[in-house]
Inverse folding.
């Protein structure tokens, strides 16, 4: 069980982190998975949105802890295509940025590996910890999973059905209109 994972009612909520533990990990260079100090190789799980932001909100991991997380986490290993629905309100209070991901299709995840000298904390103007900076030398980047295809909304499904029905009708009409097929 990752140390950072939030618990509510004796139940772990994967993907929902204890905000205090998140900050502790980042500030004290701890692995979010095993809580031990990070070593000479530091693994980060990076989404395209993180690259845009310039930092990852999630704390780092030992490379072996990252491998283990990928092996067991359905979001990281591609077994699930959608983030869990919004958690119960009591849990939602624990949620940091995860709320915005609720119910959305999974994003692409890459693993980035950096060294201790490349470990930089990104702070907001008010001094709070945003995450770990990505604007640093990276030893290696490795894809973990591809993005899931977005699910169609009800509206899009209805539209698609209309188009398909329309095509079916057009197809039938073209058969009926075809010369030679009509009995004379
Ligand atoms: Zn670890």
């Amino acid at each position: 069980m990752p140390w950072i994972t939030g618990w509510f009612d004796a139940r772990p909520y994967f993907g929902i982190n204890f905000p205090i533990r998140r900050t502790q990990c980042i500030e004290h260079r701890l692995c979010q998975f095993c809580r031990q100090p990070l070593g000479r190789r530091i693994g980060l799980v990076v989404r395209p949105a993180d690259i845009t932001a310039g930092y990852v909100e999630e704390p780092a991991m030992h490379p072996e802890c990252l491998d283990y997380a990928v092996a067991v986490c359905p979001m990281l290993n591609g077994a699930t295509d959608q983030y869990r629905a919004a958690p119960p309100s009591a849990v939602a209070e624990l949620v940091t940025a995860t709320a915005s991901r609720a119910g959305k299709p999974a994003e692409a995840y890459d693993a980035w590996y950096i060294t201790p000298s490349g470990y930089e904390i990104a702070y907001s103007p008010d001094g709070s910890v945003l995450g770990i900076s990505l604007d640093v030398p990276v030893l290696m980047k490795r894809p973990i999973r591809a993005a899931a295809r977005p699910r169609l909304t009800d509206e899009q499904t209805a539209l698609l059905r209309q188009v398909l029905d329309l095509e079916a009708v057009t197809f039938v009409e073209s058969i009926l209109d075809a010369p030679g097929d009509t009995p004379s």
